[in-house]
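fyi for ur records
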Amino acid sequence: MLLLVALILWPVSQQARADNRFMPVSAIRPEMKGTGYTVVSGSKIEPFSVRVIGLLKGSGPVKDFILIKVSGKIFANGGGIAAGMSGSPVFIDNKLIGAIGYGFQNADPTYGLVTPIEDMLRIWSYPSHTLEPEEPAVFYQGGLKSYEGVAFVPRETAGTGNGHDDKWLQARPVATPLLVSGLGERAFNQLYPTLTRGNLLPVYTGLAAAGSGGNHDFQPKPGSAVSVTLVDGDYEVKSIGTLTWIEDNRILAFGHPFFNRGPVDYGFGGAEILDTLTSNVFPFKMGVGYSPVGRITEDRGAGIGGVLGSTPEFIEVSVTVRGERKTKRDHYSFRVIQDEQFAPGLILAGIMDAVDRRLDRIGAGTAKVSFEIAGENIPVIKRENFYFGSDIAVASIYELTRLLQLLSGNEFKPVKLTSVSVGMEISPQRLSAKLLQTDLPKEEFMPGEEFIIYQRLLPYRGQEVKAPLRITLPEEMAPGKWILSVHGAGYDTSIKEDNGEKEAEMAYWEESTSLEDLISEFLSTPANNQLVAEAFPMDQSTELGEDQEETEDDHDSEMLMEEFFLHDEDGERPDSHVWTESTRYFLTGEDQVVITIIDPNTEEDFPLEEGSSGLGEADPLTEDHEPSAAQEGAAKN
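which gave:
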């Protein structure tokens, strides 16, 4: 294996030594002077002076580092190496030595580390897997007085000491500004935790998305401002950096990892720098990234690499939001990178922001949501549901959030999404109802019998209504007592309240044996506006005592005691029988009644109870059960 690695790396390292365009580390000495290039405003590449201070022996994907000090008029405002300068090429005697990749948190900001071009060229031919050198790099030529070398500090732990004493310079990758445009501040705050990984510096620009303009003038060359695209369209997420090298439509940039994800497929394009902003922590470039003209295919320890002329396969996302007020626009679209780790958060932030923009408010409401998801290794997934919440923009994406998490985290197959389409109809009304009493036509039934129950509902600030639910008992239903649990779809009687939603999610993983099974289980969940009746066999050895017999007052209780359910040898309940019927309300609560199934071999005649509302000639389920005008008005309030 070691011989194979050596054979792979040898041609690359020899290329830097033999190619007159590059200067290998072995030829560099302290006090050598050179020139770096970057963009500080617009797209004009400007030079700055560089002096070599020392050389360090590293470990991991980068074997050597070059300590430099920068100067020049671009630093006249007292700043130093800025976020967005990562990848800035440095030349000595017109030969490329590498790219600025690291700055310091405990030293003059005009000092930095150059990642040698020898290590960056390996990105094109050999993968490395380490995010940053695990061990400190020690000076072996030159250096700074009082310092033994450089300790590499992850950005997220900067300023914590990290176990290194004052004899070590603490270096971290030059932060990469990740500019978010076309997104509201609330959605940005929701997205922020997803973006604060690795060396990224999320910046809320407050600007509209730039779109596809600007790339027709993009002529990449070392020192050009470039962008890496995660999201493109009506909202954008693009990082800003500097191009180090281009050869035969292949590019190298950054001089440090982006996410260090190895093989990736991100967008690559030009950028325009609006200004370089000073900061007590780290100055950074504010700019605009343009639509991709290439793709980043490698995200490695020494930098990023890719090609021009082809663009990534994005996830196409479209969102249509209607209702509540008239606007000139109700459709939004954007494209998201193919990355299971980051795509769900990027998609959901854009959808939530589309709702916020369409409603122009944050608050309660009711939403009818439909979505369709397509991709490789999955069937086309279609789903429609009904939501109510005190923050309807958040509530409306709840189920889509769960599904994207299930797909991206599934243990069966990789899922490559190609499109996500979402349609919403939102009303400010609170169309929710609480379940009250269940009215049965009788208490004893025959297997295979068909009847209708009426569930009393209390709409929010409205008057009581009755919702019919047709039940057809299975022919093989066992004689005996059964508990009929009637509830809204959001209430799972098999999950105790103290375990909550987390245990419900775990049930998906534990019970599913394939991706198809996982998706099927998800889609079989009743919608939130569906009235659900489930019949569970009752433990015949545990009868209700006199003080536990049901009365009308008992209908307000949430659930009969767990001990009355029949359990199998493993302590689990047997499969239940389920019936559903849609309503116009988001349903909450539960009621339970006991029914008796008669043995057909012992009972021949079974009349209806006097005054019951069994299945008559006029099927009430075929009639219009919309609320009355008074009830409609109450629901709107």
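The radius of gyration is 32 Å. thats all i got for now
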